[in-house]
Amino acid sequence: MSRLAGIPVRIEGPALAGGPAPSARPAPSGGLGDGVAAILTEIVTLLERLARGQNPAAIDLRSLPMSREDRTELQRVLGEGEVTATVAAQGVSIIRETRISGLWWVEHRDSRGDLIAELLEVARIPEILVTAFDEIAASARTLREHMRNR
Amino acid sequence: MTETEQLTVGEMLLRHGISRRGFIKFCTATASAMALPPWMGSAMAEQLRNAARPSVVYLSFQECTGCFESMTRSFAPTIENLIFNTISLDYSDTLMAASGEAAEAARAKAMQDNFGKYVLVVDGSVPTGAAGAYCTAGGRSAVDTLREAAKGATAIVCVGTCSAFGGIPFADPNPTDAWPVSAIVGDKPIINVSGCPPIPEVITGTLLQFVSTGQVPDLDEHRRPKAFFGNTIHDRCYRRPFYDQGKFAKTFDDEGARNGWCLYELGCKGPTTYNACATLKWNGGTSFPIESGHGCIGCSEPGFWDKGSFYSALSSAAWGKAGEVAPRQILEIAAGTAAVGGVLGAASAGVSRLRQHGSEQQRTDNTP
Questions:
Q1: Is residue B156 a contact partner of residue B120, using CB atoms and an 8 Å limit?
Q2: Looking at the whole model, is its pTM more than 0.80?
Q3: Contact (CB<8Å) A117/B29
Q4: Among 3.90.10.10, 1.25.40.80, 1.20.1250.20, 3.40.50.700, what is the CATH number of B53-229?
Q5: Which of the listed residues B51, B79, B216, B238 has the most CB atoms within 10 Å of its CB?
């Protein structure tokens, strides 16, 4: 695909000035837009891979040209799961499990509260929640030292 | 070697109260800003945390320190500390506490201890006139210092349009016979992070990616990382729909300007300028020049100062050099209208993304 003209886009007429970039085709009422359908297809593939024991994966939501309607639609389809976790590290991160097992909606904010990354993670537990072995070993050393010095 | 120098990046960060999770988050945001695959964020974080801090020697030549100002203001207030904790900045005449002979000795020691491994960052052009006398430090000319420092560098990162392309000192009549780094050093990988100044996140992102992977990122024909320089400003401009509808501001205070219409006729160089201003923006994502009502001046392109007035509309000859222009025109003709609107914008963004990830063809097709 080397030319823009080679991409099958349908001209829907001028967009609202300054509004969010629409996806290739907006969602007809009650159905799924092309943008949302594409994301869901990718999610299914990644979930199937994870279920087969392959590596966790993620989709960078900020890299996709999604309209506000697409976003709402995606949130509606994915729904809310049982777990919500908050991480306070260089600003707040909110990790929400969706209704789809193994799919997490992750929002990273900086210390000013601005959104700096937003991902859909396909994993048993998102990487940011897992404690690293070197940190566990370091904490054990610190605690042992603390007990010795008491 | 002091104890601080031996610490891994992770240990150094912990000392400064930045946890592994905080670092993963920073790397994830950086990967997102660079349009890298999302898993690269945690991979970069893990790789860096367990590594010794890479030595960085930062040389400032014929420059205004604007690039350095930009770099030390990246992201939220804690993040510039983060990048400086990630690297071991062994020499920077602007930031280091040492001065005079002690400073020069620190540079010599860092270069000797890390020979073949350190990253050399250069900002400013290199004057060669009058035997290099226009820019000297410690009795040595910039050109000699650069040649010596380049010998042991694993790669050179040119920060700013001056070191990348010569910039303002290189502009006509170039009284100091100034040159970009690439004209002086021919045998090392060079990564150009252009802009006057470059976007802070582009500087730190490029450095972070290089030190975490040890790999020179995919570069365009001007040796700029495609992750940041893969799109024109025009490709991603929020005023693009007005361009497509043929709505232009004719003066800076007319009805069109007040309505936020396209600044093309006021000389905006967005269509021929590759940079990330329209997406990453400036001052922590606040805005960028076009959003503040002024056209792009094309500061990340070679020779930007000598390409005519900042306020003259781009000539059709210049248009031919922009990667996305020809396809857009083809589509306009195919659609029989100039008012194709945001639908095209989304498709265009998709094409640009493809190009960022290796479709060199897109760019070279339209580059003379």
A1: yes
A2: no
A3: yes
A4: 3.40.50.700
A5: B79
